[in-house]
Amino acid sequence: MIYSFKNHIPVIHQSSFVHPLAAVTGNVIIGKDCYIGPGAAIRGDWGEIILEDGVNVQENCTVHMFPGKSIVLREGAHVGHGAIIHGANLGRNCLIGMNSVIMDDAEIGDECIVGAMAFVKAEMKFERRQLIVGNPAKVIREVSDEMIEWKTAGTKLYQQLPADCHESLREVEPLRTVPKDRPKQEDFYKTLQEMKAKNSK
């Protein structure tokens, strides 16, 4: 659902995918190969929201801000299920964990990883490549090359997802029995621990 607000009409690149059950409102600019999941709300009624190329905002996320602000989710930023970004700026290729909250005027640096359910207070600033966890959030160490490699691989899946959705996502009536020729689910991504185990061999 795409809405204009006070003459601001969202700008969404044709390669990106906004799920029909998401809401994008007003002064919002969405770049190439972005994915916006069902239940997400990107609300540019009181300020400007810019998603650079390759950003994903997953199911039930909220992106909003205080009046008069402009915020940017930089290239490859990855916002996990249920997270809230309220007036914060996200750095390139960062990961915001599920159900975390990032408050006004916070700055998450490039390639940072914010753990699930973290609470980043207003105006907190984090340099690049920090692993950030807790409530209130704090840095526990730097993000390793291995962690950012794993994160980047996961984000690439979300950057492919818009094209897959445009090609194959359709509203259908459900089947009532399981067909004998039901397609097998692909196995194309490993957890961080599985990746570590593979790399150690």
From TrEMBL:
Pfam families: Hexapep (PF00132). InterPro entries: Hexapep, Transf_Hexapept/Carb_Anhydrase, Trimer_LpxA-like_sf. It comes from the Bacteria. This is Phenylacetic acid degradation protein. It comes from Marinirhabdus gelatinilytica.
